[in-house]
Write a structure and sequence with these properties.
The protein is of the alpha+beta class. Helices cover 34% and strands 21% of the residues. It is built from eleven helices and 13 strands. The chain has a six-stranded antiparallel beta sheet. The termini are far apart. The relative contact order is 0.09. InterPro entries: DUF5688.
Length: 332
């Protein structure tokens, strides 16, 4: 079966399955190159591009299907599929494999409460899309991290979390992933970490703000330096650019998304110093513009005067070496 014929048959196949209960209005096909007008569709396209193509763009890259799953007494949820990936599965294994993929995704999307998530926390396929990474200070939290999953860079711990909820009423709810989960998941550590960073990137895309006033309620697209076609602006040496995410909360994690360190080196014209001013934001300085001791003095003042203990991410200055492609703390 040719690809275009498969796409037509896939829609019929999904709509006629009574168990899935997907109506025609809840089945949406988005072709490659689709450019949305509504904010909801724009968010869908951005998230899809980040997840599948690792680039932020308002123009869809690839063909995708989005199913609205209606849940009785609860908010509708969504399942997204790459049409090309489903076609590849169909070619190798047939409709049974496609049915399995769609069924599993609808089933996982139907789970909602924190209790249900915790009950299924040892099921990796269930929990995969809820894994995120948050940055905290290792020195201040090393005892509570004893049984947790994390990566350490200098005095920073990048900690694996399970996202329980994130909404305006309840705020952000997460739980640290325990080492015991890894044994039950039976997955390669690198795959787990890659999934978690990709999810975090989709959930909170990175931003760079060049002026202090840009941090106050900026438009969504402002500072989207990793977006496709982003025009680089010249850095003002009098104001260190701020790196964060669109959510700002825990925004320092943006520095550890795939490709971000390298992109910032391109913007800075080479190596640069990194000051993790809190768990929420970061300042970068091209190496030719300032001495690291001066940045360290400033960081100490910020940690002392402005940060609560839980907001302190680091007491060290880091440097990104553009030749070695390496981020490391500076010994001073």
């Amino acid at each position: 079966m040719e690809y275009l014929t498969f796409v037509e048959e896939l829609k019929k196949h999904i709509l006629k399955n009574e168990k899935w209960n997907i109506s025609e209005e809840n089945y949406k096909f988005y072709p490659d190159g689709y450019n949305a007008e509504s904010d909801i569709e724009k968010e869908f396209i951005r998230n899809t591009n980040v997840k599948y193509n690792r680039v932020e763009s308002d123009i869809l890259i690839g063909d995708f299907i989005n199913l609205t799953v209606t849940l009785e007494g609860r908010t509708d949820t969504y399942c997204r599929f790459s049409a090309k990936e489903l076609y590849n599965e169909y070619q190798e294994y047939g409709w049974k494999r496609v049915d399995f993929i769609v069924s599993e995704n609808i089933k996982l999307a139907s789970f909602y409460s924190s209790d249900e998530i915790m009950k299924n926390i040892t099921d990796y396929e269930f929990i995969r899309n809820r894994l995120i990474v948050r940055p905290i200070n290792f020195t201040d939290n090393k005892y509570e991290l004893k049984d947790c999953v994390y990566k350490k860079i200098g005095d920073i711990a990048l900690v694996l979390y399970v996202l329980l909820y994130d909404d305006e009423k309840m705020g952000l709810g997460t739980v640290k992933a325990q080492k015991a989960f890894i044994d039950k998941w039976e997955k390669d550590y690198g795959e787990i970490w890659e999934d978690a960073l990709r999810n975090t990137n989709v959930w909170a895309p990175p931003r760079m703000y060049l002026r202090a006033e840009d941090l106050i309620d900026p438009p969504y697209t402002q500072g989207a330096f990793m977006a496709f076609g982003y025009k680089l602006e010249k850095i003002n040496p009098l104001f260190a650019p701020t790196i964060t995410t669109v959510k700002k909360k825990n925004g320092a994690i943006a520095m550890f998304y795939p490709g971000v360190l390298e992109k910032l080196a391109e913007i800075c014209g080479g190596s640069y110093y990194v000051s993790f001013t809190s768990i929420h934001d970061v300042r970068i300085h091209p190496v030719s513009t300032v001495q690291p001791r001066r940045i360290l003095r400033s960081l100490k003042d910020v940690n002392k005067m402005f940060n609560q203990a839980s907001d302190i991410l680091s007491r060290q200055i880091f440097v990104y070496d553009n030749e070695k492609k390496e981020l490391k703390p500076i010994e001073m």
